[in-house]
């Protein structure tokens, strides 16, 4: 099965990205039956407010992050989206297939337009057409994503189907692959999705030190504050569950869960344990991150080789598409 997914290089990767999506990338690349492609979605990231002086560092850091998590290059292909012009080319063709009314329905667009009121750019609106191109240019069959991307993926299938019906079948209709925690909530406002835009204290970055993790979990909103904040406790517990690795930790989780259901969970006990669990889980990542950061040439080489592989397929698909729609004379 050919699998593809991407993540935006904007700020640091957080445990929402990891538990909702990237955890599955790592798992899926272990199966030799899968052919995995993962990209740094820099073209998508420039639809948000950004500092051009920081962007190349953010792209490099994301490559470092992915390598430190054990992705590529032996098990999967890592590459940078903007290096493959064919994504944007196919995105343009999809612009002529997707309808305004479909894009207007996208909840991510509506949410982000509220956050960046001064910068509601056309790219932000058109994001799903480029995302469909990112996936279909490789004729990928499955896409591991968090819950927030399901609507976009459904539109990708609609675009594929519409193209196939109109011009002849070339695209598969890719399915989504979700983790057990497809939606991690903010630590400071558990009614909102965890995201970088919620501020430093609202998320745990993979690169946070054990001390910072402890501090952030300590002040995380739990359900102790009243009925409207109930979700906070559920969120902390599902994060706990997702990071358990041993039988003992699982048992510990079940006991916290039972206490929570009975309304007698002590956060003073749960929170330090949860912080410890997260810090331990990423100990190996932190070590590898230091190692890879000493070798920037290697990181760049991985991306260059990835781009070469991606280009070979993307060129072929775009040619096929141009042929189908009658652009080749
Ligand atoms: P992005 O930051 O939009 O590039 O996200 C990269 C991946 O992380 C996508 O597959 C998202 O669906 C996923 N993701 C982002 N935030 C969350 C969250 N709070 N919970 C679960 N998955 C998430």
Order of helices and strands: EHEHHEHHHHEHEHHHHHH
So what's the overall shape? globular
Tally of helical runs: 14
CATH fold topology of the largest domain: Rossmann fold
Strand content: 5-15%
The side-by-side strand order for the widest beta sheet comes to 1-2-3
CATH architecture of the largest domain: 3-Layer(aba) Sandwich
The CATH homologous superfamily of the largest domain is named: HUPs
Total strands: the figure is 5
Low-pLDDT segments: none
Organism: Candidatus Azambacteria bacterium GW2011_GWB1_42_17
Protein name: Tryptophan--tRNA ligase
Family: Belongs to the class-I aminoacyl-tRNA synthetase family.
Catalytic activity: tRNA(Trp) + L-tryptophan + ATP = L-tryptophyl-tRNA(Trp) + AMP + diphosphate + H(+)
What does this structure look like?
- The protein is mainly alpha-helical and 329 residues long.
- The chain has 2 domains: 2-182 and 296-325, 3-Layer(aba) Sandwich (Rossmann fold), CATH 3.40.50.620; 196-286, Tyrosyl-Transfer RNA Synthetase.
- Helix content is 57%, strand content 7%.
- It is built from 14 helices and 5 strands.
- The strands form 2 sheets. It has a 3-stranded parallel sheet.
- Helix 3 (52-68) crosses helix 13.
- The chain is globular, with a radius of gyration of 21 Å.
- Adenosine monophosphate binds next to helix 1.
Summarize the structure.
The chain is 57% helix and 7% strand. It is mostly helical.
């Amino acid at each position: 099965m050919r699998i593809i997914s991407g993540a935006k290089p904007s700020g640091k990767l957080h445990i929402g990205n990891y538990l909702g999506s990237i955890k599955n990338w790592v798992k899926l690349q272990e199966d030799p039956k899968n052919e995995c492609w993962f990209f740094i979605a820099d073209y998508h990231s420039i639809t948000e407010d950004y500092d051009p002086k920081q962007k190349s560092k953010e792209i490099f850091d994301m490559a470092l992050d992915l390598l430190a998590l054990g992705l590529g290059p032996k098990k999967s292909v890592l590459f940078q989206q903007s290096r493959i012009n064919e994504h944007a080319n196919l995105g343009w063709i999809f612009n002529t297939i997707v309808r305004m009314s479909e894009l207007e329905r996208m909840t991510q667009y509506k949410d982000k337009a509220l956050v960046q009121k001064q910068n509601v750019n056309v790219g932000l609106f058109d994001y799903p057409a480029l995302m469909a191109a990112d996936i279909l240019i490789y004729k990928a069959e499955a896409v591991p994503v968090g819950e927030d991307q399901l609507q976009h993926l459904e539109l990708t299938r609609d675009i594929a189907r519409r193209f196939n019906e109109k011009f002849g079948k070339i695209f598969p209709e890719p399915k989504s692959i979700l983790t057990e925690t497809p939606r991690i909530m903010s630590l400071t406002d558990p009614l909102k999705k965890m995201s970088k835009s919620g501020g430093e204290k609202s998320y745990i970055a993979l690169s946070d030190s054990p001390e910072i993790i402890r501090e952030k979990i300590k002040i995380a909103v739990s359900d102790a504050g009243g009925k409207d904040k109930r979700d906070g406790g559920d969120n902390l517990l599902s994060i706990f569950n997702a990071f358990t690795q041993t039988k003992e930790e699982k048992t510990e989780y079940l006991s916290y869960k039972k206490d929570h259901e009975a309304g007698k969970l002590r956060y003073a006990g749960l929170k330090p344990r949860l912080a410890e669990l997260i810090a331990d889980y990423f100990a190996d990542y932190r070590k590898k991150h230091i190692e890879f950061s000493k070798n920037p040439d290697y990181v760049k080489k991985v991306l260059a080789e990835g781009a070469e592989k991606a280009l070979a397929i993307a060129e072929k698909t775009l040619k096929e598409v141009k042929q189908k729609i009658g652009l080749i004379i």
